[in-house]
Design a protein that fits this description.
- By secondary structure, the protein is an all-beta fold.
- The protein has one domain.
- Helices cover 0% and strands 22% of the residues.
- The protein is built from no helices and 5 strands.
- The protein starts with a strand and ends in a 24-residue tail after the last strand.
């Protein structure tokens, strides 16, 4: 982590232990995302719109497109917003008097299949 006082920003680097040096993801499972936390990960604006058609079907709690590390230190709903970078990243957090809370980092590209990042 590093603080830049000129721009009032905090820089944070992540280290993903679930991706190897060749870019292959490993030790992931399907994410179990609570209905209230399902969001618009791909930027297409779909989110929770089909919630009224869903019933108490446990299979609907699993998200095939979103993966979660098997040995993560916390569950998907721990922070109120589920997020896994799925790779090494550098983030810049800018502190403003009126922040736009809808701007969040994009979800990682980890998959259950052994596909290369490259």
């Amino acid at each position: 982590m590093a603080w830049d006082s000129d721009t009032n920003a905090l820089f944070a680097a992540t280290n993903c232990t679930y991706v190897d040096r060749l870019g292959y993801h490993h030790d992931y499972r399907r994410a179990k995302i609570p209905r209230g936390l399902r969001g618009d990960y791909d930027g297409e604006g779909e989110g929770d719109e089909d919630e009224e058609t869903e019933e108490n079907d446990d299979d609907d709690d699993w998200d095939d497109d979103t993966c979660w590390p098997k040995s993560a230190h916390h569950h998907e709903n721990y922070f109120g917003y589920n997020f896994d970078a799925g790779e090494h990243r550098l983030y810049r957090y800018v502190f403003k008097s009126e922040p736009d809370t809808k701007i969040v980092p994009s979800y990682g590209d980890a998959t259950l299949e052994a596909s290369s990042y490259w």
